[in-house]
Design brief:
Elements: E1 2-7, E2 10-16, E3 21-24, E4 32-33, E5 46-47, E6 56-64, E7 67-75, H1 98-125, H2 130-154, H3 161-171, H4 177-188, H5 194-217, H6 226-254
Helix pairs in contact: 1-2, 1-4, 1-6, 2-3, 4-5, 5-6
Length: 266
Amino acid sequence: MFVTWKKQGVTIFSYHGGNKKFNIDPSFSSARFLSQPDLITGVASLVLDSAQATVGNYSCKVTESNREGEIKMELKNSSVVSCGDETPEEKCGSWFLLVERAVIISLVCLLVILCAAQLSVIGLKYEIESQRKVCIIVALVIFAVVAGVGAALFMQDGYTVQNQAGLGLIVIPAVILVPLQYIMFGIVFDSLLQATLVLIGLKLLGFIIALVGFALCVPACPPLHGSVLIAGLAIMAIASLLSLAYVFIMGSRMKDHPRPGNCRVM
């Protein structure tokens, strides 16, 4: 049996079955049969390292006794998900689906908007100490900027250190929204009601779930637990929405009635 592999008409790999001799072009030194024992069944598939598998037209010709067959094919370069043992810099394709990336970034944007809206409602209904107001605004702006940088890195195609760092900049700093929620409730209520504690706990739970999802997604490509991360961010967004509604409703009820801590005996 004789097997000859060519690229653009130039022989890159050949095999002489009589003396079991191989001739391999140095530029394709990684070339080998997929399974040499299967040659007798007509399987002459060739394996190349990705670095040497350059695009072009390839042909395989097999000759056995008085029989001969040849097949031609074109190798094209395409963007695929590579999740083997390569280093992150060698990996290509998309870590998360485009829809998943869009949902994650949208949820983070929603968290920032809802937090800003809640601060605005509180600012309109209650007097806030200048120092406390500045601290809340600065913390929210820092989170928005960091999350924005993370989103820019995360949206890029590939499974690289940059993508992982981007997702980390989106998820991890979101913890700042939990103490911010506590502070904003503290402005409205002298003592936190059970409902406010539940809402703060719900937001904390959402962050923990998102953080666990992030930890599970980092080592896996494609991510097997992306839904966990998205669910965590969604829970945080729901908690923020409920907190905004609660502050708005309770603020409307209390605007004409000073809080007990503000009552003074004249």
